[in-house]
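debug: dumping io for the single-chain case to check the tokenizer round-trip. Nothing else runs in this session.
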Amino acid sequence: MKPNFNEMTVAELRKYVLAHRDDMEALRALFHHPSLKYQQMRPLVTEDGVPIAENIRIAEEAIKKKAEIAREKQKQREKEIEDKLRQKLEKEIEEKLRPQIELEVEQKLRQKLEKEIEARLLPKITGENQQSDRPTTATVTAEEIARFREQLKHDPEALAALDTIQECEGNLEEAARSIATAAGNTDVESDLLEELSSRCRTVICQEDMKEKLPVLIAAIAEFLALSSGFPSRLATPIALFAMEKESEDFCDF
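debug: decoded output
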């Protein structure tokens, strides 16, 4: 039993015709389906050739409307094409620039990290450099020498050593070598004070010796007289040298 072609939609008729290509009745029903018929335009003139103004106006409006619709569709197509092209270009640019951008970001982060590390380590490095560049000998100022003279005014040997230190412009190492040479010690090492203060460490680092310059000088002088061939007058520059080195944990060495 055939279906009722008049009740079928265009889609249903097409599906049926594809399955029944020899059914002419179905083909005619498809070709004459009401939804596929174009609306006929009203006549623009009468049978006598007289223009029909109302029909002409309606036709003009219809043509304008179709033109507007066509323009809108064209604009929409152009916009879609433009959007697709823009997206494609943005993607290509991003793919080309991403490695460069990532490299620049990495370089900036590296520079920032290096600056932070430098800011943290620079004080420490500077301090170490200053420590390494610092001479092994110490110096004392004229004001300090004057203060030491007051503390040692009852010790002639210490006062004589202070005279030598003053002549050497406060340079303890130079004064020590001068004292040693004057006493007949010809083979004097360049770091004499460092060597002698190390020998006297057990004396210098006793608790009762700290911050007692006259007692400290007397103890070092006695130690030098008993244990070395150097003059006891060297006790003064050694003591001053050890006091200057105390800030560097001389006794914790």
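debug: round-trip ok. Residues 131-136 have pLDDT under 50 and may be disordered.
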